[in-house]
Design goal:
The chain is of the alpha/beta class. The chain is built from 17 helices and 13 strands.
Length: 415
Amino acid sequence: MHESDNTTTKGALSGVRVLDLSRILAGPWAAQNLADLGAEVIKVERPGRGDDTRRWGPPYLRDGNGNDTSEAAYFLSANRNKRSVTIDITTEAGQRLVRELAARSDVLIENYKVGGLKRYGLDQESLRALNPRLIYCSVTGFGQDGPYAHRAGYDFLIQGMGGLMSITGHPDDAPGGGPMKAGVAITDIVTGLYASIAILAALNHRQASGEGQYIDMALLDVQIACLANQNMNYLTTGKAPGRMGNAHPNIVPYQDFPAADGDLILTIGNDDQFARFCTVADHPEWADDPRFATNAERVRHREVLVPMIRQTTVMRTRETWISQLEAAGVPCGPINRIDEVFANPQVQARGMQVSLPHPVAGSTPLVASPIRLSETPVRYRHPPPGLGQHTREVLAETLGLGDDALDRLQGDGVI
């Protein structure tokens, strides 16, 4: 491991150096998780262009005068706590720089197409021969083998192929029915989380054995794994589940319901909670009705029960329901817009919005990491970097290159 963090409070991964050759979301999300935990993350980008998401706007970060900068909000979401180095890996000199950085790193993350880095001598076999302790993580759409291995994979595509869209959205015969993707690139996000977990496991293995290893992460694998109970609903019955809107396949009532002035969510997870709901709703007889007394019967009779509940919930305001149900210990809540999320007192109390100084805009708002560690808390050391902002700094610190060598590399367009 390599120490570069000279602040007094160390992160859980202080001393770990990560070389981030990934772009878009899944790989950068994994690298950001490691960076939040204290790792030194060096983001290697293409000179003049960088990560594609730098241009995925509007919206863009605004400066103090309210004017758009060149920093896309999308890029800001997945690249804090990193330093940006621009290297042209199509040149021999650029390849040599990346190999030298990899030789001094603990982890490398990349999301090029299968075999894409081999022609540059930057594939896992080449770099792990150079540095046997290296943990090399590849993130692709379909993995390193199988008939689809060489296909490009994108989140939206994988949500469809991996089954998520077949269970998301309203049924075909309902208003607005049809398959629907999630509102964020959830497959990319969760692949980044699984990649982070795999890297942490590999670091622990290396601590015991001294050996690095190769990690093969595929978006399709992750999407399928994340279908969780819906997978098992199919595997145990042989019947593929369909779209149910906001209803739950295994629990009733567990969906949205109309109030007099909006909508609320009921998430009733057991029979005691249902009985308490019935009391608050002024229908205690429902809890004794054999069709509704147990969750299994409520699932079987959802077509009867749910309309009855909807006719009841519409008679009171959302806030009235929420206050009465919370007082009775019945899980419920509103459906918030994102502006309402950040105005919520619980969200504010948890500090889920942070701000960091930014070299272009003056400051940038960011979303805090949800990881809370008592002894090695997440720290926000660097804002998402400008393209190539740290090239000379990192190459001087890590490889010992002087100004003359850096000037030559810059003059040749390598950095």
